[in-house]
Amino acid sequence: MLLGVIADDFTGASDIANTIARGNGESGGLVTSQYMGIPDYNADPTVEAGVISLKSRSVPKADAVALSLEALRWLKAQGCRQIVFKYCSTFDSTPQGNIGPVAQALAAELGVDGVVVCPAFPKAGRTIYQGHLFVHDRLLSESGMQNHPLTPMTDADIRRWLSLQVTGDVGLISLNTVRQGADALRQALAQDGRQLVVVDAVDDSDLAIIGRACAEAPLVTGGSGAALGLPANFIASGQARGHHGGGFAGAVGPEAILAGSCSGATRGQVDHHAKGHPVLPIPVDQVMTGEIGVPQLLSFLLEHSGKAPLAYSSATPEEVRAAQERYGRENVSDALDRLFASTAQAFLDQGGKRLVVAGGETSGAVAQALDLGEVMIGPEIDPGVPILISARRDAVLALKSGNFGQQDFFRKAANMLAWAGS
Ligand SMILES: Nc1ncnc2c1ncn2[C@@H]1O[C@H](COP(=O)(O)OP(=O)(O)OP(=O)(O)O)[C@@H](O)[C@H]1O
Ligand SMILES: O=C(O)[C@@H](O)C(=O)CO
Question: Of the residues 186, 208, 236, which one is the last residue of a structural domain?
Fold first, then answer.
């Protein structure tokens, strides 16, 4: 294994696994596996990039640090020469962490300074200019992310937000320097002297420069865009051959869509899907009182098999706030996580073959419960969302980050899981 990734959630892990498996298109990507948690076995020797999915974005920061260091040790034991710490392209975190503390712990363990912090993902509209993160034409803090149920992002200044989470100053390398090329950027990073340095990027060519500048960097941190240029380094140096992906014939069998994400994008996708497909809203009150549970969800999903049925708890920021005030934030998310995870488990146990899950925390809960083993990366459904193939469960999945995907994502995903190879 050459490249190792520690991802702080499961959808983010498939996002970056997708980027690394595809590389820059021309030279190809790396042979990539996504692991659901830290494996207790050694990787297959043919795997060139290993992506470890953790559910560490919203856990206490000491737990996030401990899990990430354990993942680092496993990746180093597999031979990785470079590590990427993958977090959200909207920098999802609170003033206490977890991005800063994890990045600092990894940098300390690897003994490096001048570590790139770059959440940019231009294909999904995330760009960084003068250290400020934009979602399309809006500052992060005006993009809807200020209402996130777990990590409300109320400041778009990534340097300032990260400074709240770390010890010491945070650096900034602006677009001007990036556009002077890889040598200039490498030099600027080496001279900066600070452990973590926010680096601007507004399009894929900036990310390619960052990738070249980081060819020898033991640690890179960012969204999936930060890894865009990394496979080409291993291919150019002859360490990897350049992989162009294999065929995927599609899976036959019942399909289900579960959405726990409350992002604007997911809510739009739910509304769109409801116009032509069976949908089951999941009222939080009824989950908390036990009136609705796995049996109701499962019978709905199986009854509508073949029609891309969707069960969702997705709700508006006002509804989320009200539920959190009534029951407590963690109680609600634990109850919903448990419901989605157990439903997914029962669905696969009953012969379900195709599963689409929306939301990082929700996907993490589901994927951990399913014991998927390692998954192969199949075709891309929409930017940042690949098909995942689990040999262990004989099932195919898509784990969608809350904000990703076009309006018709759910229909497209259900269809592609059935026939993407053709
Ligand atoms: N109706 C609801 N009321 C309150 N909380 C909810 C409701 N529905 C979902 N939630 C909680 O909101 C959170 C949604 O997080 P999740 O990570 O799954 O989606 P997301 O934040 O949109 O996705 P991503 O992390 O990929 O951006 C979960 O903790 C979930 O339990
Ligand atoms: O980077 C992103 O936006 C996604 O991969 C993600 O992590 C959202 O949960």
Answer: 236
